[in-house]
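ok so i was messing around last nite and threw this chain in just to see what happens. nothing serious, just curious
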Amino acid sequence: MLVVLLLASCKESPQASKQVAAVLEEVKSEYAPDKRVALFDIISVKNGDSFVLKGESNLPHAVAALKSRLTTDSIPFTDSIQVLPAAHLAKNTKGIINISVANLRSNPGHSSELVTQATLGTVVNVYKQEDNWYYVQTPDHYLAWVDDGGFELVDEQKAENWENDEKIIYTKTYGHAYLGPGEEAAIVSDLTAGNLVTIVKYTDEHYIVRFPDGRNAYINKNEAEPYEYWLKNRNPTKETLVASAKELTGVPYLWGGTSTKGVDCSGFTKTVYYLNGMVIPRDASQQVHTGKLIDSTRNFKNLQKGDLLFFGTKATDSTSEKVVHVGMWVGNDEFIHSSGKVRISSINKSSKNYDEYNLNRYLRSKRIFKEKDKNLIDLTQTIISK
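result:
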């Protein structure tokens, strides 16, 4: 009898471990299939007849689902999961980007990969700290690390106060805020399109503004607009999308860039749409899953200005499709994209700017302009920052 029990015990342990691993994978696939926008880094460790759940997540509902399913399956466990925000942050679980463009990286260090950017005035969620680096989530849900020089750490009340303040939005591609009313005054900060700062006072020629860290500055009125006015007058058309895109012609390519200082391919399309009052997903591989399919057979006659063209490698019997590049249709057989720099390319073989390379790896075109999609945010309908 003792031998039988020992053998049964040896057989049950691997089976239970496989069952826990299957539940973990099931919950992760359901709640956090894309690690760029959801953190569910949890493992199980066998401890006698039970399991210890270790790791961290910013998804309390996913953690609750995991524990519920293990309980339903009668699997004993100890919960050692850290649900973010981390306790050491206390009440300071929000941040406000404090410089024109903050670089957000894959790991806490300036040598780590630049994965995205966030512009001045953006409110982010803060989840944990490592030295002078903070793990944050942007309004489009992207997760990354930013150093403490890029943002102001605040509590929820201060973040809410900032969001409710009257603001201006900077509308020029690039410029500066000054300490005084003349351009001979000292520079307080550089500025890029889409930057948001609080209005303190109006003068005939300037906005006197306040940065998230309390710095005051002057901005020329012809370079910015009150945010509410700008938002109210966002009536984007196919032509305004093209105009915004062409204003960025020549801006250098920057891996991870989403600002007028530098853009990668999807950062470019994201910036163009943001300047027209719309927030779209960060990466090309995410953007391709939004909107309405227009073409997948190189039938470009059905495209309209503003449609997004996706490029990459098609799926095979042994490999999945890989979307690696995106551009925007501007009409006349041309699309604009960030490749080396923001440029206009053509699908017409007789054109000087014919782009054979990208035409050969073309996958499909999607229409996201004025389409209804849970991953497309219309700022006139859903205010995420102001």
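not much to say yet. Helices lie at 2-31, 60-72, 156-164, 227-232, 238-247, 265-274, 284-287, 356-360.
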